[in-house]
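thoughts on these tokens:
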Amino acid sequence: MCTGRVTWLLCGHRLVYFSSRCPKKCETPQGEVVELRDTCAECHPPYRMRCITIEYDLLREKLMVAIRMAEARGDLSRAKELSRKVWEYDGKRGEELRRANIRGMAEDVVWPGKLEPYYSLQLSYIS
């Protein structure tokens, strides 16, 4: 039986640490399970927002090239259709950015075993 620690994050992902491995190479170790009020790097709001922005900027760039090519060919109906897609994707981009920017996860991180300094620091702000 593998032993170690599993740390659950706010985003639902987990960090797994194995202190010892058995021949079975278990997926989850037996041992302490803790929660950490933080997100993983991929779910961190500023990172997610940056990825969404890059993705939609590239998509918009491709659509703008296609619009210019359609206009150059005189295919105005295709250019109009692609312009509608640009507006549609801009709306989707805004929705995704709003979802990624949810600040319910933006609480101070309390690291396991570090509670006393945390509370004394918080109390100093109140005084």
Observations:
- Residues 44-103 form one domain.
- The first strand starts at residue 3 and ends at 9.
- The mean pLDDT is 82.
- The chain has two domains: 1-39, 44-103.
